[in-house]
Amino acid sequence: MDTDKIAIFDKQQQLVIERQNSGSSLLIPSVVRLSDKAVVFCFYDLEQKLFFLYDQLGNLIGNRPIESTRAPVFGSDSKGKKIVVYSVDSDVLTTTPLN
What we know:
Strand 7 (73-76) and strand 8 form a beta hairpin. The chain has one domain (5-97). The chain is flat. It is mostly beta strands. The chain contains no helices and 9 strands.
């Protein structure tokens, strides 16, 4: 990560995705495995108070970042089949399903 680009590489050092950074130097990355083949990459921007969700192809999920005054939290049902992301903005809790 730098102020121009965000890049994710796999274990073999192959580029998985690369996206433009909005200029933030305070990004918190995380990854959620939805299945054996489906992964979600999350970047929480501490400066702008929003996060970006990308699929394994680098496409932005939801077509826009999600506003949140805190870093998002990921959860699943007891069988792990439904994954959601929880976000808080102005004391309002929002859940966004990922699958």
